[in-house]
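User: Second chain of the day. Same drill as before.
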Amino acid sequence: MRAVKRLVFATCLVVVSTILYIRRSGQPGPKLGAYAPACHAGPHPIDGVITRAGKRWDALRLEETISIDDAAAAYRKRRERHPPPGFGAWYRHAKASGAVIVEDFFDQIYNDLEPFWGLDVNTLLARVAVFPDVLTVRNGSVQDVPNEFFRTKIWVEMMSKIPDLPDMDIALNRLDEARVIAPASEIDATLMAASKRRKETMKRPNNSFHETMQQGSSTSSSHVIWNTGMYELRSAIRASCPTPYFVSLPSHAIGSDTTIYLENTIAAKDICHNLELFDQHGALIEPATVDFTTTLFPIFTGSKLPAYNDIVIPEPSYYSDDPSFTGKSFGIDWSTYYPWKTKINGLVWRGGSTGGAAHDNNWKQFHRQRLISRLNASEYDESVYPARPKDERFADWLASVTNVAFTRLFCGDQKTAEDCPSMASRFTIAKPIKMASQYRWKYLPDTDGNSISERFRAFLLSNSAPIKASIFDDWQDHRLIAWKHYIPMRITYNELHDLMAYFLGYDKTCPHDAEGEKIAHEGREWAEKVLRKEDMVIYLHRVLLEYARVMNPERDRLGFVSDLS
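Assistant: Same format as last time:
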C-alpha cells in the first residue's frame, strides 16, 4: 500500500513539475504594437488575402456530400469515371466515423494514380513484385508485412481498421525521400492513354473485384534500375519537367503565383514553374538519401516533391501518438492549454538542421539554415540572405519577437557539423524546447525537414497559428485553405518579415492580433473535423480501392453503379 502511495505521489510530483516547467519556459514577448507607436490603422493587403480565403472556404463547404448518391455523382463529375467497387462500403465507413466528405479532398489520389491507367497491368504487377518492401493483402486483411520499420508498422495499423480490403500487393517506401521520377514525355504518354481508357469505364461495369489479384505474366517487364547518384537525380528531376521550362530561363525565374503574399500554395510548389527552388531547398540541392528510379511503377510514400510519381498516403508520424509529434505528455493536451491572450507575442522554432546532405559549400542555400538566419537578429547576414535593410531598431524588434535556434547541426551524412566549420561558426546550438512548451507562443513557423514537417498537424490542432512553408505534396493539402486555417509563406521566406509585422506590429504597420487569433481558432476547429486519425484511415481506404482497381486486369470493367439502378 505504501509503495502504491509513493508511486502516486511521485507521478503527481512529475506532472506538477512539468506544468511549472512549461509555464516558465520562454520569456514574455513585447507588448503588442511596442515597435509600431505611430502605425497606420488603414487597410492592409493581407486583409484582402484573408477575405479571399474566406470566400474559397465558403465555396468548398458547399461541395460537401450528404448521401451516397450525392457522393457518387460528385465522383463521376470530377473524375469522369464510375467510382471503384467498394465505394458504397467506403462511404458507409466514412459516415460512420463522422467524416466530412468533399470530393475535392481526394484530388491528390487522382493526380498520383492517373498515369498508371496508361500502363499495362501485367507490367505494373511485375514491377511491384520485385520491390523489396511489399505488403500483401489477401481475403480482406494484411497477411505479409515487409520489414517492420516505423512507417510500415503504422501503415499496417491503419489498414487493420479498413473493412473488406480487396486483394493487392503494395510497395511501401520506408525512406523520407520519394522514389519514382518518370520523364515528362512518359507521363504525357500515359495520361493520354489513360484519357482514352476513361470512356470505357463509363459503360455499365462490374461492381466487384476478382477474388484474388492476378500476377504479372512471365513476359511482363519487371526491370527496374535504381540510381544513387546526384548527377542522375538532377537530370531526372529536370527531365520530369516539359523541355521549354529549362530553355534560357534564369535560376530566379518567377513562378505561377506572383502575388506579394502566397495564396496559390499548389502553384508555389511546382518545381517546373519555380526554378529558383533548385537553389533554395535541400531536397533539390542534395537530399539526405538518393535512391530512385525513372521507371514508372506504383510505390506508396508519406510525401513527395510534385515532380515525383509516388502515391501519397498519410505520413505515419501524423497518426502516431508519440509526444514528439503531438506535444502531449502525462495525459495532458498542451496544445490548447494556454489562452491566446496569455501567449507570448512572437514565434518560436526548434529543430535540427535536417533537410538534406549539407556541406561547407552549400549549406547557406538550405531551407532550414535560411529560416534561422532570416529570423535570428544576431546571426542575420544581409549579404547572404537579402531582405529588408538591416538597422538596429529592426534587429531589436526581431530579437524581441523570435526564439529560434538549431538544437543540432548535421553535415553531410554525419550527425555533427565538424566537416562544416563555416556552418558551425554561424549558428549557436540551443537547448530543445518541448512541443508542449512551444504552445506558449502565438505563432509557430513550420518548414520542411528531409520531407514534410512531422509537426504540422499538431500545430494545426493547437490554438497557436502555424506559419507554413513547404514544397512537398501531403495527403491533407486539399483539405486546408491557406489564410483560413494557417498562414502560408514561400520557401524563399521573402515575405516572412512582412507577415510578422502584420500580425505583431512594426514601424508603420499596426498589429493584427485578432486576425492571428482567428486563423489559429478556425484552423484548429477545422483540423478537429477533417484531420482526425479516422480521416487518415478513410483517405487510405479510398486510395487502396482505387489502387486495387488500377492494378486489376479487368479494371476497365470495374466500377460502382449501385446508385444508378
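The radius of gyration is 25 Å.

User: Great, on to the next one.
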